[in-house]
Design brief:
With 384 residues, this protein is mostly helical. Helix content is 78%, strand content 0%. The longest helix has 43 residues. It starts with 6 loop residues before the first helix and ends with a helix.
Amino acid sequence: MGGVVGIKDAAKLIGVSIITCCAVLVCTMFLNFYLDVVSVKAEITSEASMFFYNAQVSTAKVVCFVSGGCLLITSVIMLIFYIKHYIDTRKKELGILKALGYSNFKIAKNFWIFGISAFIGTAVGFGAAFLLMPQFYELQNEDKMLPEISVRFHPSVLVYFVILPTVFFSLLAIGYAWYKQRTPVLMLLKDSLRTSGKTKKHREDKNIERPFIDGLKRNTVKSKKTLVFFIIFASFCFSAMTQMSFSMKDLSSEMMGAMMLLIGVVLAFTTLFLAVTTVIKNNTKTIAMMRVFGYSQKDCCRAILGVYRPLSYIGFAVGTVYQYVLLRVMVDIVFKDIENIPVYKFDFPMMLISLALFVAVYEIVMYYYSGKIKKISVKEIMLE
């Protein structure tokens, strides 16, 4: 029973670890700075310094809420996706355990180990934040408008960003695993899920009316809607963070710009890698059958991967709008009373550069995975 879920299975959730690491890195720096800057409020005497203090406090709140909230939602979706995928690929094993008398909860409680992925990510992010904090504090108060602020350790930050997320993700994994196992034992042993006959027939009738490639494209997208989110999120991160990082050089500091660029690229590649590899794994038999029936590698790539290209550009557009709105809010509302803050305007040349980089990177990744499709062995698939 103890072998239902192991450390190796939890290690596959590297995407959750990376995203939680990025979230905790940013949020820990800003929340810790907020708690430390609040402690020197009584020492502020000038009106200009008070305006600057209020702007720094507001910035910390906005960054923690926006960045932390967005990445938390993404981490939750990714964890749920992994658990669903894990259960779907081991339905027979779980069905045997249920047939032997194990309850849903007794099986589900083994999934607590998936919370380790969150612990690794939050712990690394928390530690990295404290390594960067001295330089971060210095840059935040570069003009010495506030009294000297020293880095202090706040146990509450450790609880908020390491302990509570670990407990939350462990409980979420147990709860979702219990929910997914409510399928009857016979359905698990047959390795199939109950499907409404009417719905299935309706879908089949629709697909008959379409050309094979078009029908396959629709089924590829509709069968794994979570992957659509990951594709859009990957391009969203690349677009928003690359464009915002260059603006941060003028609005904040080069350190903030570099950190945003690094986080954006890491998140983009992590989610894109997860999405594309999962798409190919889930469609290996389909690809093999297409090749048996004479479809070329180009046709396979167009049916399995090409359908996500328009979605990636939608994500890029959303990221562009998001970063523009966020920076306008920061400049026009949060820092409106602070002197020497440059006027922010939409950087169209930077958007074009970011778009060109995105197209190049995305197409290189797709070309690499099209090679993976070419290497899929028809013989091995047929012998499974």
